[in-house]
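Meet my pick.
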Amino acid sequence: MTENTTITHRHESGRESGHEQEHEYDYVVVGGGTAGSVIASRLTEDPGVTVAVIEGGPSDVDRPDVLTLRRWMGLLGGDLDYDYPTTEQPRGNSHIRHSRARVLGGCSSHNTLIAFKPLPSDWDEWSQAGAEGWHGAAMDPYYDRLLNNIVPVGEADRNAIARDFVDAAQQALGVPLVEGFNQKPFHEGAGFFDLAYHPETNKRSSASVAYLHPVMDERPNLRILLETWAYRLELDGTRARGVHVRAADGTRSLITARREVVVCAGAVDTPRLLLHSGIGPRADLEALGIPPVLDLPGVGENLLDHPESVIVWETDGPIPENSAMDSDAGLFVRRDPDSPGPDLMFHFYQIPFTDNPERIGYERPAHGVSLTPNIPKPRSRGRLYLTSADPEVKPALDFRYFTDEDDYDARTLVDGIKLAREIAAAEPLAGWLKREVCPGPEITDDEALSAYARSVAHTVYHPAGTCKMGAADDETAVVGPDLKVRGLDGIRIADASVFPTMPAVNPMIGVLMVGEKAAELLGGDLR
């Protein structure tokens, strides 16, 4: 196995188990991603605690293609992307590919690092859904513990057209200017985002950079197993003993935990691992020939996302080159005054984002910009499920986009396109724009706008909810507020899969905060 660090024999025991080599640690963290990096770092602050991190991808150390934030688009669909397809979406876009990072740091090594502290109303919604102790006031301190360098987009990265978008949004919609979205809770506002990066170098401050890089060569009690894929949990009755893994050379091992297994593989691969281990809806497992160990109907259900559509304009020539990651500014709107938070969001792309419109006949302009109306609180719910007992076969992701009963999600995108046009007509942004490319100014009625918006909809890679947290009497909950898997001992889940509902903002900071709270829960159980 490839690994970053060695571990002293005082902390590790190994023995042959059939054809597998067995290694034992205090904790086994499955997934060296956003939450897993936090948990591994925090647990190994105690030199008497041994931790193994199972990471399916390579290290991000000395990888400028990963560590340079503005190169994020080049990672999509590449060899560091698990690249999950979407099932047929009768009311949406069936061609969406869901990027999931195959590299240390997980999706924080792969995404745009837009850094929003979830709003108090987001956490309160979790608490009301049965996640006792996860309300806004209780969760706020975890943000202050984060080690990432979270700062507003640097002045040198503030592109002139992005600045003019912010001004035009205020002018057209009457929303306030926000300088620092994390300073206080908000309902509306336009401004530059906070990012987890170093403006002077454009380098990421991902979970791995912030939590693992400073300690990975200094802590003999931390072992990171890279290019190592976890494919099945090892269970002894109702206790999780460890996880079966395969290294890059095909070698198979059993990594066991004296104390707990912590699954942090993300909203796709966490339920996938549970299902292949016989934990999930009994009938579905039996239909595939997987022996059921625990009938847990919520595994794979409640699949959430932040779908969005796009409106594109051609500009009167090239725009300035400076940017942090080409989508540095945005806008939040609250259409419903009774909504506890924003109910419409936009990212402003300093590029013509036409990947999906091109599929239905639109052409990419040489120079352009885009606005992406996004649904902060989508009402559609999807499902992840297996199609094969073979762990190598990717699971099916059926997001059931735009299937909510009252068509709220689709109407949100229609409203977004209309508001985007108002912004584009306002100065100083209007002076940059030559013409609307897609959907095109001739498309104006709601039905046609909805058909366009849904057919070119895309994801901002925020899958969540597939092992949701809830109260003990919630039969669809997979974990309780202590993150322990219902009906099992010695195993917790800590990643976006435990989200009961979707935060109104980009969820990465929420996942980091879940990691901090999980580490505290794990440590607290030892005292």
Observations:
- The two ends are 34 Å apart (CA to CA).
- The longest strand covers residues 252-263.
- The first helix runs from residue 34 to 43.
